[in-house]
């Protein structure tokens, strides 16, 4: 197993990177059960980070039952790892026939690359067997019965979004079932919802608008109607005295061959100075259109989003946006799944806060 290296410029928080490195050493046998790993100060020195960062990393490993912290003596690999555990089987259910790396690069697909890495990292650390499985959406009663039967070999299941609702409901009756529902209510109260703190993100988005000094705002979205977060943001902006055009939400199709022309015409009207991109695959297109007509992003125009940010790396100047902690969500799902199975009780997954990534 190749060890992950610490990268302070990466979007993944340092505590998660450090815990991943220590976890890989435990899994590879480099650190055996009962081995003393050292003190917090030693870890801080080894990784060139603060003791607070080390403590957060150790909190993650302790929650996974991989280490024990003994006052004064230091940190030890848990002796519980000597005990054999039944391997848990997880199903990642998808309504698409093809699953490829291309899916993982899309910002708006439930399994963005960061979430994908978090899921697999969590599964690997807990010794789980994972399987990506295609299920046809809106099946006939006979096909649904077959799908339910196919899930019986799995200990828990993970779904994304509102698709496969009937299968989600059936799965939740038999096993822990997680769903990244987004703004859509879950198909059943038994389903374990996984999401970021949308109310907090909405509040901070308005704060960013007001702090920017721009006096007008709008939303660009592909979805019709726009998501509730886009509409709610504009309502918040209006109440705060920010100018919002009568048609404040512009619906544009990412696959439209005339998209570039439409965006250039829209931006050239200069109706708004602050744009919330509610469909983040469009971020690159908006940047290209602004550059094509000579608009200075960050001066004449601000473009922001709530996203994992995986598609923003090449945008110049770098955008200011709110990062959805998808990697951490993936880890949480796996940890909570093991907890639910071991305890036999329903668990909840706390909503995580977004992180403000400030463009420069």
Structural class: alpha/beta
Sheet with the most strands: spatial strand order: 5-4-6-7-8
How many beta-strand runs?
Answer: 15
What's the main sheet like? 5 strands, parallel
Total of DSSP H or I helical runs spanning 4+ residues: 12
CATH A-level architecture of the largest domain: 3-Layer(aba) Sandwich
- Estimate the strand proportion: 15-25%
Explain this structure.
It is a single chain. This protein has 360 residues and is of the alpha/beta class. The protein folds into three domains: 14-82, Orthogonal Bundle (Arc Repressor Mutant, subunit A), CATH 1.10.10.10; 89-195 and 325-351, Response regulator (Rossmann fold), CATH 3.40.50; 198-323, 3-Layer(aba) Sandwich (Rossmann fold). Helix content is 38%, strand content 16%. The chain is built from twelve helices and 15 strands. The protein has helices at residues 14-27, 40-47, 51-63, 101-105, 113-125, 141-150, 165-172, 198-212, 228-239, 259-268, 283-292, 326-343; strands spanning 36-38, 67-70, 74-77, 89-94, 129-134, 156-160, 177-180, 192-193, 217-221, 249-251, 274-277, 302-304, 306-307, 321-323, 355-357. The strands form four sheets. The chain has a five-stranded parallel sheet with strand order 5-4-6-7-8, sandwiched between helices. It has a four-stranded parallel sheet with strand order 10-9-11-12, sandwiched between helices. Strands 1-3-2 form a three-stranded antiparallel sheet. A hairpin with a 3-residue loop joins strand 2 and strand 3 (74-77). Helix 2 (40-47) crosses helix 3. The two termini are 37 Å apart. The mean pLDDT is 85.
């Amino acid at each position: 197993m190749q060890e992950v290296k610490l990268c302070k410029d990466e979007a993944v928080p340092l505590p998660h990177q450090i815990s991943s490195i220590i976890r890989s050493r435990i899994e590879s046998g480099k650190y055996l059960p009962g081995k003393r790993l050292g003190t917090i100060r030693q870890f801080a020195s080894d990784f060139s980070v603060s003791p607070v960062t080390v403590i957060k990393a150790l909190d993650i490993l302790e929650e996974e039952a991989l280490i024990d912290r003994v006052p004064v003596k230091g940190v030890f690999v848990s002796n519980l790892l000597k005990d054999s555990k039944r391997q848990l089987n997880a199903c990642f259910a998808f309504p698409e026939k093809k699953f490829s790396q291309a899916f993982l690069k899309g910002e708006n697909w439930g399994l963005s690359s960061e979430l994908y890495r978090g899921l697999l990292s969590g599964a690997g650390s807990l010794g789980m067997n994972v399987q990506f499985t295609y299920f046809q959406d809106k099946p006939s009663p006979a096909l649904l019965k077959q799908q339910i039967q196919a899930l019986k070999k799995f200990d828990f299941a993970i779904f994304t979004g509102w698709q496969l609702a009937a299968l989600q409901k059936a799965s939740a009756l038999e096993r822990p079932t997680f769903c990244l529902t987004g703004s859509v209510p879950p198909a059943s109260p038994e389903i374990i919802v996984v999401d970021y703190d949308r109310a907090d993100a909405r509040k901070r988005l308005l704060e960013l608008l007001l702090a920017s000094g721009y006096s007008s705002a709008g939303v660009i979205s592909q979805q019709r109607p726009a998501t509730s977060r886009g509409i709610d943001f504009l309502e918040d902006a209006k109440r705060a005295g920010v100018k919002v055009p009568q048609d404040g939400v512009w619906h544009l199709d990412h696959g439209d061959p005339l998209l570039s022309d439409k965006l250039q015409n829209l931006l050239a009207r200069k109706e708004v100075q602050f744009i919330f991109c509610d469909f983040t695959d469009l971020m690159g297109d908006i940047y290209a259109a602004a550059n094509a007509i000579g608009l200075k992003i960050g001066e004449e125009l601000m473009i922001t989003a709530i996203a994992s940010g995986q598609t923003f790396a090449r945008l110049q100047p770098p955008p200011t946006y709110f990062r959805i902690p998808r990697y951490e969500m993936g880890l949480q799902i796996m940890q909570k799944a093991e907890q639910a199975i071991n305890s036999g009780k329903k668990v909840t997954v706390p909503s995580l806060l977004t992180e403000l990534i400030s463009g420069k």
